[in-house]
Structures are given as structure tokens and as C-alpha cells.
Specification:
The complex is a heterotrimer of chains A (819), B (295) and C (191).
Chain A: E1 13-17, H1 21-24, H2 26-39, E2 42-47, H3 52-55, E3 59-62, H4 68-81, H5 87-93, E4 106-107, E5 110-111, E6 114-115, E7 120-121, H6 149-157, H7 162-169, H8 173-184, E8 193-197, H9 199-202, H10 207-220, E9 231-233, H11 240-245, E10 252-253, E11 257-258, H12 267-274, H13 293-305, H14 329-338, E12 340-343, E13 346-349, E14 353-357, H15 361-364, H16 368-375, E15 380-385, E16 412-417, E17 426-429, E18 434-438, H17 451-469, H18 475-478, H19 492-500, E19 502-503, E20 507-509, E21 512-518, E22 536-537, E23 547-548, E24 551-552, E25 573-574, E26 602-604, E27 609-611, E28 691-696, H20 713-717, E29 722-726, H21 727-733, E30 740-745, E31 748-757, E32 763-765, E33 768-770, E34 772-776, E35 812-818
Parallel strand pairs in A: 1-2, 1-8, 2-3, 8-9, 14-15, 15-16, 28-34, 29-31
Antiparallel strand pairs in A: 4-5, 6-7, 10-11, 12-13, 17-18, 18-25, 19-22, 20-21, 23-24, 26-27, 28-35, 30-31, 30-35, 32-33
Helix pairs in contact in A: 4-7, 4-8, 4-10, 14-16
Chain B: E1 2-5, E2 9-12, E3 29-34, H1 43-52, E4 78-86, E5 89-97, H2 106-110, E6 117-120, E7 125-127, H3 137-141, E8 148-150, E9 155-157, H4 163-166, H5 173-177, E10 183-187, H6 188-204, E11 211-213, E12 223-227, H7 246-255, H8 262-275
Parallel strand pairs in B: 3-12
Antiparallel strand pairs in B: 2-6, 3-10, 4-5, 6-7, 8-9, 11-12
Helix pairs in contact in B: 7-8
Chain C: H1 2-14, E1 29-32, E2 40-45, E3 54-59, E4 71-76, H2 89-92, H3 94-99, E5 108-110, E6 118-119, H4 122-140, E7 142-144, E8 150-153, E9 157-161, H5 167-180, E10 184-187
Parallel strand pairs in C: 9-10
Antiparallel strand pairs in C: 2-3, 3-4, 5-6, 7-8
Classes of the chains: A alpha/beta (819), B alpha+beta (295), C alpha+beta (191).
Chain lengths: 819, 295, 191
């Protein structure tokens, strides 16, 4: 989230799309209702189903799953055509005025730079046109230059008329125009609107561009950075925000630093490639905060390798593993299943061992059968868990998952009992970036142990083996800093201190060299004090400030809210720098006056910025730097040349779609989305599977856990799997409410209770009658025996977004029949 | 375990004279339900079960989001889900169903066991299991089809408005849990005022038939409910004009004072029981029959 | 139930309960005791979605040496600014999540080719896992890629981490992953 949960109460219009917040984030949803009740805010719900969110909405618009980009670009078109955008904001805070090089083109569904062989784009074709004199980005403040981003955008969205949106999305034109009218009503300074989304956007083969389209709309309407505004992703788990912040994924190190590639052989090479330079050095230039990259990286290496990291040895950079290509979720599965992979021209082994702390890939999918088959090829598997999920018992999965016979599966599986959340302390980071400490309440049951103890014991045992026996690169283990008071079960407060970072030697004050900013051994106050010479260490620069000399700020519990805007600066710690609204400089105009004085984010008082923690150099007068300090342009991007699938979003059909793309039938789905080619990766055709299907969660269950609760209340509230089917389709197929129904995709079939409902409607897509069905994910063959069910992801395809490699769970094709 | 409580009692079943000492002035409390901001998340259902340590019953997915067809002796709080075509579109209505804590409680009026059903001075209507004889007459007296017979204990069971929490100054468990704030708790005056404001807001948003459901037939309820479609209470499975069945009123106001002659109790009991099989005055509105076994 | 009601009718018929039908004493209410009046309260954060609701975990006993704490109730923390004491049905039933009997309580191993679990001690499990990790790393380690660049990675192991691991655990896990050279890593955030 750019903003916070409570901040939603400050909004005038909420577009809830690509998510069902009432269902999945009910407690956060209270602030939607608060805005409705106290401000008369309007809630617009756009969803394939009439959801729990829609039940409280002022306006519900049905949409075909997977067609959201067309819907959003149509709103952008409406805003531009009807001059319902915030022009001053666009001029000051976006790259709308920037001039794009002549190399950029868009024809018949393809952007310039497409390499059909690699199915990739050469993104240099999308660069800005540098100003010949200054070499900085060329800018036309009037927005009239036909090569300006604004004019190119206007041209790009011209095709998305309400008629075209209706044809693609199935949203009736009159309903759609009402949506456009309400959403664009915030394109004025005195109004603010928010867009909220979740996995209904992130899990598509066009996911990132859906979110970009929303962000662009918010920039046009002048809603980013403002109280009551923003682009707000509602994350689905208690700490996946934290998991991403702290390097859960292959491509990043803690704090979104880049995992070094094979091509960066030295720290110098790496830092040069990773640290961006500012091209715009004129007024409104960027602070380009990433210029501090070397400070963050060197401090991380010092935290990782301790005293072994020296300037002479590149701070241990050589010991870091380097990556070539993609090692994400679906590649893990595919490479495991194949047993090897091809990287920069050479064959390398695939995983033969697999360690999972609290994840359940068989349930998570996509394509559960492929996961079962892949796990069966492993030599060993370690799962640390609260309960016996599908993954550790893949070797006894039911027949419909096509497992090899148990006697032929040579995988040694260890299932380790782990502590629950209540049985250990530590911090979770919520969707609003609040790092909140939780205290341990009880001991784990039986012999169960905390995850940190399980992990530490494995690490220490492996390190001992290397000490005794040697092996490849033993320094990587021997030099890893593990100097916790209790190395077997590190105290999490101590670990949080390491994440925050500290001075290793005295740090002189840059303003007055006779003074020291921090003396050796002191915790740093924030990432602004980190150094690139090895004199500081910091496990994650983004979290710096969480555990200072003042103590553990994640434990703060003040309920004071002096602004009245729901910022709560002394409750816990919000990264970065305890800032509650990201990009808050954009809440004020060119002079630093708030767009809406009733809802100021930050305000220039003549000497400094006051209000929220400024997303800006605190004493830099208006006009010095642009509002988007992390971007080299310094302004928000209506045009983003860093995306893998185009600088503008474009409507592409899902990998499995019921129609050819009406805009460009020859380039129907995302041209750079990758497919897999194993015998398990089967993709369905619309002729065989005519019905659009989507998957989701229920408020009464959580993922694949809560159905394990023996005699649990949640199993009472939602006892089992069901399939939601529109009344008309049920009539056609002779399916009665409550009867058994079978749903089949190209990957397999599942069966369950039919829930025949008015909440899914018949749709007219591209002139044809079409149906959508959906089902929740929560059940599987593991869990409480009275509450098992089919795995939803038996049906989902191995398709994914080309930027995040997140699977396309939300739109695929099925057929349906009476069971 | 039950404890003697010194909450003032306004009324007690089968009592000839009032029991209120009148020494303390206690405001009437009320729950507030705004169906227009309810998302049917069932936090209230879960909170009720958890707080009251109700036993878990086996449920079945039969093609609805609703947990059970109707209330149950181990399930005192149920969200009722209804899909309705409206104005060319659809409304998906969710309403929290539970004891309405009537100002004029039909259950209490019908109850022949002294002290088995009490109405505290703050308006909460409660069943005292120690005194309940399980005769089920309260079922007959209730215009909202709330009290349920508990097979194991042989007693009647229903929402207590968390009197154990309210008596120590806390809000009921369901109210505290409610994530959207569609449930509120406070004095009846405050809740009625809140409801009036919300109804005005809904009317100005085009719901011209919005109303605060607080039916006169039972002299108002300790649970007031905001309905956007106030002209259609049956869409929410609420009776349009609930009141205490005539025979129950007859028994209470006229015959019971004569009940010193015990045999009358039996006669009237039988008469009242008869009403269960007579024409239902209020129960019938869209209420599906219970098709689950009692606990 | 029939018996009870018949019993009542019978009793009234013979007039054995002379006071039936009216009560001569001032009524006293009987009700459940407030069940969490002396439990120990621990502040925590709900482990489900990312709203990050504050929860108060009520445990049996006062943390004195001779009392074994167990969870008796979970309720919302009214101070937490987002949740303000409210919870969804999942949060309200966290007691079930902590205490239910399907929780794993001892390490288990499934041997190659076997169709059942066997119990294993922690020490044996850790020793065997460490052996596997070392053997795989030794066997699969790629010091240089096909271009001859030093890459020091160990594609023989994949490591994934869940959504309810703390930041501190995630950080420790990243360090271990780095030491082992594991390139195949992912998290719940992806899916």
C-alpha cells in the first residue's frame, strides 16, 4: 500500500477492483465503511462476481475475469476526453510532459523492439528523447508535443471506447459510464480517490500492467501521495510484505537490492550496474535516492559477513551466489521436474533437495499434479510446519493427482513440527508497511520448535560438516556472521537490531567534521547514516530506524493521532523512515501548498516540510526536487520503459481465453508471457473449454491451514468446497443448487457442491453469450478428515506474468457438467 | 458455572409482582445492526461461539453462504443471506439474526417457570438454566423464532446479549468483533439516534424506504436494525409486524395472576402449546424449517 | 424434552409445586462468571491476512512458575489503530488455530520407497538433513557458469519460506540461503 489502512477513511471515492476486500480484508474494510458513513464516499466494486464487497457498494460493475486493462484504459480515455484529470498535478508530478524517442511505436498489438525469436522486447526502443543541449530528458511543459508521454498516452487509449470496453469486458455501457463518471470525479484538487486491489490483479499474465494502468489513472487524477488517495495493494498474508522486503525471492537481496548476476564479477561492476544516475539535473531534478545504493549494499555485506568482509576482499562480494536467468516459483517446479536447466548456454543441475518453511506448493500450484510429479523426483524434502499439509504427504496423494506408486518414490521426507505465531515473538509487516512486534504467549506444543531454532540447527550442523570435511567454497559458510548470544536459537530482538544496523566505527557528522554522528557500536537512527566504506552494517536499509538507540520501535503502542488523518506515527514502525504515506510530496502543489488543505500530507512551512515524515529532503524548498525521489526522473511514470511487456499497458487476453483479442487477433495474449513445455503443461482451447473460471478465497478460511483445525469453528462456518455457478448456466446444464458438479480444465477435473447463484451473470463478450464460474481454494487432501476436498489448483495453468512471474490463477478455461 | 448477580431485574417469568427494587436507575442497552454495511463475514457468529463456549455442530455445504438454515441451541447468532433482484440489478442482503431482546418479551410472558426467563433492568432478556424446565413455551411466545431447546441439557438456549460481559462494563462479543462496524452497542437512546442518522443518510442516497426496525408490536427491541429496503422486511426474514401471540398475552395478563391454583397452569400450558400448531402469526415469513437435529 | 414437559404438566396437575406460576421472592439473576477476569494477556498480531490486527491472547494462569500456560481465549486489541478491537471470523477463532489437535508435535521421517511416517529424534533429523544439504551442495555446486564467470551457486537446493515467518526469521533464512549458495528461492508473495 502506498497509504495506510486507516487512511482509507479520508477518501471520496474507492474503486475496489482486482480484489474483494470485504471478503479477504474485512477488518481493513471497516475504513471503507467509515468513509461512506462519515464522508459520504462512493464505493465502486468491479468484479466477475457480485461479491461481499459489491453487497455494500454504491455501484457494482460486472467484468470478465482477465479483462481489467481494457476497463482501466477506458477510464483513462474517458478522463482525458472529458478533461476530468488533474492537469496541474500531471504537469508537476508526472512524466506526462516528457518527450519520447521516435523509436517508440505501437502497431497491431506489438510495441517496437519485439524479438519474435526470444519473445522478448529490446527496451532501449522505448527511451526518452534526451534534450540535445542539456542531455537531460526533453520536456514539454504544455503537454502538447505529439511525442510527449501525455499525447502518446492519449493516442494509445483512443481505442478503448465504452463500446470496445463492453465488447471485451462484458460490462454494460451505461454501468461502465457511471463507473467512469464516479471514478474521474476525483480529478480535481479538492477530491481524493483511492484504488484498492489484491490477487485479482497480481495473478494474471498481464498482472503488472493491470496495476500500472491503475497507477497511471491515479497519477492522472492527481491521487498519488495524498491522504485518501494512492494505489493500495492488499497483501494476503500476515508477513508477505516482510518476506518481499527482506529478500524472499531469488532476484532480490534485503531491501530490494538486486541479486548479483553472473555478469557482475566484482563489487565495482555490480554497483555501477545497479546504481542509477540522474539524467534530469534541471529544476525538479530527482533526488535519485538510489544513488545511495553502494551504502546500502556495503552495509548489507558487513552484516552478512561481519569482520570477514573487508575493503580488500570486496566485502565478501565474491561469496554471494550469482544468478543467471530465472529461479522463481514455476521455474523451481519445472527445473525440479526436468532435473536440470539450461543457463547461459550450459546445463546445470535442477534442485534435488527442497526446504520449505511453512509453504505448501502442492496446494499453492498452479497445476498441482505437476508439483506432485516434481516433488517425487527429489532426493530429499524438508518441511517445517504447524500441520501436515499436502506437500509433505505428496507420496500418498490420492489417485486423481497421478502420483507414482509410493514404493517408487525415492524422496526422503522430513516433517518438522514448528511453532505457531503465538509461540514465538518477532515482527510482522502489514500491508501498510507497519512493522509490529508480537510477544510470545505460550510454548509450542510437544516437541515443536521455533523456525529460527530449526533453521539455526540445520545451518550450524552443515557448517560443522564443512569445518570437518571441507568442500566447495567453505568460506561462504565459515564467514557468515552468526554471532548471536544464543546461536542455536537467536533472540529475535537481537536479530532486529542487526537488521536496523549500527556504526562499526565512529561516523563523523558531514555537516561538522569535529562532531560524530554515531559512535562505534551505536545503533543508527536510519538509513541516512549508512556508509559505503564498511564503517556501518545494516541487514536491511529499508527497515533502518526500527531498532535505534531509543529501543525497539516496532513495540511502540501510542494511539495518539494528532493529524486526525489516521497516521499514528508512534504506533509501531512504518518503513521507510516511519513514513505513513509514500510519495507524500505529491500531496502538495508546486509551491508546497496542499492540494486540499483539509487533507494535507506534507506542507512547506517556509523552512521545512511538516506533517507526515516527508518523502523528500526535509529542508529542500519546493522546486528543488521532484516528488518521486526513488525514480531517476523524479516524477511519477505515466510511461514506464522498464516493464518487460511495454511502456504502456495494453489489453491482452489471458493465456487461456474464450475469444481472440478484438483489438489485434494476431497478438491475442501477452506476447512476452512464457509458457512451459513439459508433458504436464497442457493448455486448453476455447472450443473444448468455453467457460471462464476464476479462483478466490473466503473470509471464513485462510489458505490451506484452517481446514486442518479439528473441531474448529471455521470448519463449522464453511464446511466444504463448492462451485459458484450462474443460474442460467445451471439451467442449461440441469444442475440443481446443492447437487454435485464436475469442473474440468485441460489439466484435470474436480468435483464439488454446486452453489447456483444470481451473483454471477450471463455475459455478452465480443457478441457471444458467455458464462463465468468460480470456486474457492481452501481445500485439499490433507487437513481435518471431515473437511478435505479437491485442490483448486488441479485446474490452474502454468502461465504467468512476464514481470513478476506470478502464475495466472485468476482467469482460465473450463467446462462444467453434472457429476 | 453460574454466579449470583446483582443486576437489577425488571421482570421475571411467572412472577406475580415486580422484582425491581427501583433503587438504581439503569439505562436500557441495545445492539445496533446496520445491514447496509454488513458484509456477512460471520465474525459475530464466530465470536458468539467462542465467547459462550458453544459446542461445535456438524454443518454441511448445501449451496449457500449461510452457515445454518436457522438458529440452533448451540448457534445463537446467524447471518441470513438473501439474494434479491432489485431495480434492474441485484442486492445481496445479509442480516444478523439473534434474540431481539424485546421490550415486551413474548418468551418471558409465555414462560411458566418462575425466574427461568428474566429481563434485567437494562433490558437484556436472559434464560436462567437453573430455573428453566425445558417446556418450550417460550418458543411459542417468541415472535422472532429465537429460543431453541437444547437436547443435552434439556434447557432452552438463546443469545444472552453477553450479559456476563455487559455486567462488567464490556460490549457483547459479537459487537466487539464486527470488522466493518455495522454492529454497535450502547444505550438504546444512542443506538436509536445512530439508526435515525443512518436512515436519513440512506434516504438521501436514494433508499427512500429505509427504516430503523424497532417494532412497536413488542414495544421496541433491544436490537435495532437499519434496513435499506424497509418496505420489505421479509427480504431480511424479519416479520413485518411482530407481536406477542394473543394467547400468550391472555395467559400473562389475565390468567396467570389466577395461577395460584396450580391446575390452571396445566390448562393454560396446554392451550399455549396448542398455539404452536395453530396459524403462525409471525414465524412463517420466509423462515426455512429447521432441518438439522437439535444439539 | 417430552419427559420434562410431561413432568411439568404432571407436577402442576397434582399441585405439588404450590408456587408454580408465580414467584414470591424477589428474583435474582444467575449467569455465567466473566471468564477472563484473571487470565494473563499477551499482545500479539494476527497471523492471517496483512491488515495486521492486534490480538490479545488470554492464557491460563498468571505466569507463575507452577502454572502451565495454555490459550483459553483470543480477542481483539482495542488499541491497535487499524483493527481497534475488531477481528474477522478467522482472527476471533485463533484459539482453535493454536490449540487444535491436528498440530504437529514431533519430527517425522518418510524413508525412500516407504508408505508411512516414522518418528525420528530432533538430533537425528537435523544430522540427516545436514548430511543431505552438504552432499547435495558438494555435488551440485556451480563455481563458474558456461561463460566462465564465477557464480558460486548451488542449484541442487531450492528453499522457500512462508507467509507467517517473522521478518527476523526471513533475514536469518536469507543469510543461510546465501551461505549455502541457493539460487532457487521464493516466497508466498509470489503465489
Amino acid at each position: 500500500m502506498t497509504n495506510g489502512w486507516v487512511d482509507i477513511k479520508n477518501t471520496d471515492v474507492i474503486l475496489a477492483m482486482g480484489g474483494n476486500p470485504a471478503e479477504n480484508h474485512p477488518v481493513g474494510f471497516k475504513w471503507f465503511m467509515e468513509a461512506k458513513k462519515t464522508r459520504g464516499a462512493k464505493l465502486v466494486a468491479v468484479d466477475p462476481r457480485f461479491t461481499r464487497t459489491a453487497a455494500t457498494a454504491d455501484l457494482y460493475a460486472p467484468i470478465r475475469a482477465g479483462s481489467d486493462i481494457a476497463f482501466l484504459l477506458g477510464i483513462i480515455r474517458y478522463a482525458i476526453e472529458n478533461k476530468r484529470y488533474h492537469e496541474d498535478y500531471v504537469k508537476v508530478h508526472t512524466n506526462g510532459p516528457y518527450v519520447v524517442s521516435e523509436k517508440f511505436e505501437f502497431n497491431d498489438g506489438l510495441f517496437s523492439g519485439f524479438d519474435a525469436g526470444k519473445t522478448e522486447y529490446d527496451k532501449t526502443a522505448w527511451a526518452y528523447e534526451p534534450d540535445p543541449k542539456t542531455k537531460a530528458y526533453g520536456v514539454d511543459p504544455t503537454l502538447q508535443n505529439p511525442r510527449s508521454v501525455f499525447q502518446l498516452l492519449k493516442k494509445h487509449v483512443e481505442r478503448y471506447t465504452p463500446e470496445m470496453v463492453e465488447r471485451i469486458c462484458g460490462t454494460p455501457k451505461d454501468t461502465y459510464l457511471k463507473v467512469c463518471q464516479i471514478v474521474t470525479s476525483t480529478g480535481v484538487p479538492e477530491k481524493a480517490g483511492t484504488i484498492t486491489y489484491a490477487l485479482g490483479w497480481t495473478q494474471h499474465s498481464t498482472a503488472v500492467q493491470m496495476i500500472r494502468a491503475a497507477a497511471m489513472l491515479q497519477l492522472l487524477l492527481g491521487n498519488v501521495g495524498r491522504p485518501g488517495g494512492g494505489v493500495n495493494a492488499f497483501r494476503g498474508h500476515s508477513n508477505i510484505q516482510g518476506a518481499t522486503d527482506i529478500a524472499g525471492t531469488f532476484d532480490i537481496l534485503p531491501g530490494y537490492l538486486k541479486t548479483p548476476p553472473g555478469s557482475s564479477q566484482t563489487l565495482k561492476d555490480y554497483l555501477e550496474a545497479a546504481t542509477p544516475t540522474t539524467l534530469n539535473k534541471e529544476a525538479w531534478a530527482s533526488m535519485n535516492y538510489w544513488q545511495n545504493y553502494p551504502k546500502f549494499m556495503v552495509s548489507l555485506l558487513k552484516a552478512t559477513y561481519g569482520k570477514a568482509a573487508t575493503k580488500e576482499n570486496d566485502f565478501g562480494y565474491a561469496w554471494l551466489p550469482k544468478v543467471d536467468g530465472n529461479y522463481s516459483w514455476m521455474y523451481i517446479c519445472d527445473d525440479m521436474y526436468r532435473g536440470n536447466s539450461t543457463r547461459v548456454g550450459g546445463k546445470e543441475p535442477g534442485p534435488e533437495g527442497f526446504i520449505s518453511f511453512g509453504m505448501n506448493p502442492v496446494g499453492l500450484g498452479p497445476n498441482s499434479k505437476k508439483w506432485v510429479a516434481a516433488l517425487a523426483k527429489l532426493k530429499w524434502l524438508v518441511v517445517a510446519e504447524n500441520v501436515e499439509t499436502e506437500t509433505p504427504i505428496f507420496w500418498k496423494s490420492p489417485k486423481q493427482y497421478d502420483p507414482p506408486e509410493a514404493s517408487k518414490i525415492q524422496t526422503e521426507v522430513f516433517l518438522l513440527p514448528a511453532a505457531d505465531f503465538a509461540e514465538k515473538d518477532g515482527t510482522f509487516t502489514n500491508s501498510a508497511r507497519w512493522m509490529q512486534w508480537k510477544w510470545k504467549a505460550v510454548d509450542p506444543p510437544g516437541q515443536a520448535k521455533s523456525d529460527q531454532e530449526i533453521l539455526a540447527r540445520i545451518f550450524l550442523a552443515v557448517r560443522d560438516l564443512y569445518k570437518k570435511e571441507g568442500g566447495p567454497l567453505p568460506e561462504a559458510l565459515a564467514n557468515l556472521s552468526w554471532s548471536y548470544t544464543n546461536p542455536v536459537e537467536p533472540d529475535l530482538g537481537e536479530v532486529l537490531k542487526e537488521i536496523n544496523g549500527k556504526a562499526l566505527s565512529d561516523i563523523p557528522d558531514p555537516a561538522d567534521k569535529t562532531k560524530t554522528l554515531k559512535t562505534a557500536g551505536q545503533q543508527v537512527d536510519g538509513f541516512g547514516q549508512l556508509q559505503d566504506d564498511g564503517s556501518t552494517m545494516c541487514g536491511n536499509w529499508l527497515h533502518s530506524g526500527v531498532f535505534t538507540e531509543a529501543g525497539n520501535n516496532a513495540q511502540r503502542r501510542s494511539t495518539a493521532d494528532p493529524t486526525g488523518l489516521g497516521m499514528y506515527h508512534n504506533w509501531a514502525f512504518s518503513w521507510p523512515a516511519n513514513r505513513r504515506i509514500m510519495y507524500n510530496r505529491a500531496s502538495a502543489d508546486a509551491e508546497g501548498k496542499p492540494w486540499d488543505p483539509k487533507r494535507p500530507g506534507i506542507v512547506w512551512n517556509g523552512e521545512k516540510w511538516v506533517g507526515d515524515v516527508p518523502d523528500m529532503k526535509p529542508d529542500a524548498p519546493p522546486g528543488t526536487f521532484g516528488a518521486f525521489i526513488m525514480l531517476p526522473e523524479g516524477v511519477g511514470r505515466l510511461y514506464a520503459s522498464g516493464m518487460n511487456d511495454g511502456p504502456f499497458p495494453e489489453h491482452y487476453e489471458a493465456v487461456e481465453a474464450p475469444i481472440d483479442n478484438p483489438l489485434h487477433p494476431k497478438v491475442t495474449s501477452n506476447p512476452v508471457s512464457k509458457k512451459f513445455s513439459s508433458d504436464k503443461d497442457i493448455y486448453g482451447k476455447k472450443e473444448d473449454f468455453p467457460i471462464v473460471c476464476t479462483t478466490y478465497r473466503l473470509t471464513e478460511h485462510f489458505h490451506y491451514w484452517t481446514q486442518h483445525q479439528h473441531d474448529g469453528v471455521l470448519n463449522e462456518l464453511q464446511p466444504g468446497f463448492f462451485v459458484e455457478i450462474p443460474e442460467g448456466l445451471a439451467q442449461q446444464k440441469g444442475i440443481a443448487n446443492g447437487s454435485q458438479v464436475k469442473v474440468t480444465s485441460a489439466r484435470g477435473s474436480i468435483q464439488g457442491v454446486a452453489m447456483v447463484t444470481k451473483r454471477l451473470r450471463p455475459m455478452k463478450i465480443d457478441g457471444k453469450e458467455m458464462w463465468q464460474v468460480g470456486f474457492p481454494i481452501h481445500w485439499g487432501y490433507a487437513g481435518d478428515p471431515n473437511h478435505t476436498g479437491p485442490l483448486a489448483n488441479t485446474l490452474t495453468p502454468s502461465a504467468m506474468d512476464p514481470n513478476t512471474w506470478t502464475p495466472e490463477f485468476k482467469a482460465f478455461l473450463v467446462r462444467i457438467e453434472k457429476a | 458455572m453460574s454466579v449470583q448477580q446483582n443486576l437489577e431485574i425488571r421482570r421475571s417469568s411467572a412472577s406475580v409482582w415486580g422484582s425491581q427494587s427501583g433503587m438504581r436507575s439503569v439505562p436500557t442497552v441495545s445492539k445496533y445492526i446496520d445491514t447496509t454495511t454488513c458484509i456477512g463475514c460471520k465474525a459475530c457468529e464466530a465470536a458468539c461461539i467462542e465467547w459462550n463456549d458453544l459446542r461445535h455442530i456438524a454443518t454441511e455445504q448445501t449451496g449457500t453462504y449461510q452457515t445454518l438454515p436457522t438458529l440452533h441451541a448451540e448457534y445463537w447468532n446467524l447471518i441470513r443471506f438473501n439474494e434479491r433482484d432489485f431495480d434492474g440489478g441485484l442486492v445481496w442482503l445479509m442480516r444478523k439474526d439473534q434474540c431481539m431482546h424485546c421490550e415486551e418479551p413474548g418468551c418471558l410472558a409465555a414462560c411458566p417457570a418462575p425466574g427461568a426467563i428474566v429481563q434485567y433492568a437494562n433490558g437484556i432478556v436472559d434464560v436462567n438454566p437453573d430455573q428453566c424446565i425445558g417446556c418450550k413455551y417460550c418458543e411459542t411466545g417468541c415472535p422472532f423464532d429465537v429460543p431453541r431447546f437444547h437436547q443435552t441439557t434439556g434447557k432452552m438456549a438463546k443469545c444472552t446479549l453477553c450479559v456476563d460481559r455487559v455486567s462488567v462494563g464490556l460490549e457483547p462479543a459479537c459487537i466487539k468483533a464486527c470488522p466493518t462496524g455495522c454492529l454497535q452497542f450502547g444505550t438504546k437512546d444512542d443506538m436509536v439516534a445512530l439508526g435515525a442518522r443512518r436512515v436519513e443518510q440512506l434516504k438521501s442516497n436514494g433508499f427512500t424506504n429505509a427504516l430503523l426496525y424497532n417494532p412497536e408490536g413488542v414495544h421496541g427491541t433491544g436490537v435495532v436494525t437499519v434496513l435499506a429496503h424497509g418496505d420489505h422486511p421479509e427480504w431480511y426474514q424479519l416479520p413485518r409486524d411482530p407481536h406477542v401471540p394473543i394467547l400468550v398475552r391472555f395467559w400473562k395478563s389475565f390468567l396467570r395472576p389466577l395461577g395460584a391454583i396450580a391446575i390452571f397452569g396445566a390448562v393454560i400450558g396446554a392451550l399455549t402449546h396448542y398455539t404452536k400448531f395453530g396459524p403462525k402469526e409471525v414465524r412463517g415469513v420466509d423462515a426455512p424449517d429447521r432441518n438439522l437435529p437439535d444439539a | 424434552m417430552e419427559l420434562t414437559r410431561r413432568g411439568f404438566l404432571k407436577a402442576t396437575a397434582v399441585g405439588s409445586t404450590i408456587a408454580l406460576g408465580f414467584d414470591v421472592a424477589r428474583a435474582k439473576a444467575e449467569m455465567r462468571e466473566f471468564k477472563i477476569s484473571r487470565t494473563t494477556e499477551t499482545r500479539s498480531v494476527c497471523p492471517y491476512c496483512a491488515v495486521g490486527c492486534g490480538v490479545i491472547i488470554h492464557t491460563l494462569g498468571d505466569k507463575s512458575k507452577n502454572a502451565k500456560a495454555s490459550v483459553v481465549h483470543v480477542e481483539g486489541d482495542p488499541d491497535q489503530p487499524v483493527s481497534r478491537g475488531t477481528l474477522c471470523p478467522k482472527g476471533i477463532t485463533l484459539k482453535d488455530d493454536i490449540t487444535h489437535k491436528n498440530r504437529l508435535t514431533k519430527p517425522k521421517v518418510r524413508r525412500p520407497g516407504s508408505d508411512h511416517w516414522e518418528d525420528i529424534s530432533w538430533d537425528d533429523a537435523i544430522a540427516k538433513i545436514a548430511r543431505h544439504v552438504k552432499d547435495t551442495r558438494d555435488k551440485c555446486f556451480v563455481a563458474k557458469n558456461a561463460k566462465g564467470e564465477v557464480v558460486n551457486r548451488n542449484p541442487g537446493i531450492a528453499m522457500i519460506g512462508g507467509c507467517t515467518d517473522t521478518n527476523e526469521f526471513n533475514y536469518l533464512q536469507w543469510k543461510v540461503i546465501t551461505a549455502l549458495g541457493v539460487p532457487y528461492r521464493d516466497t508466498q508473495a509470489r503465489v
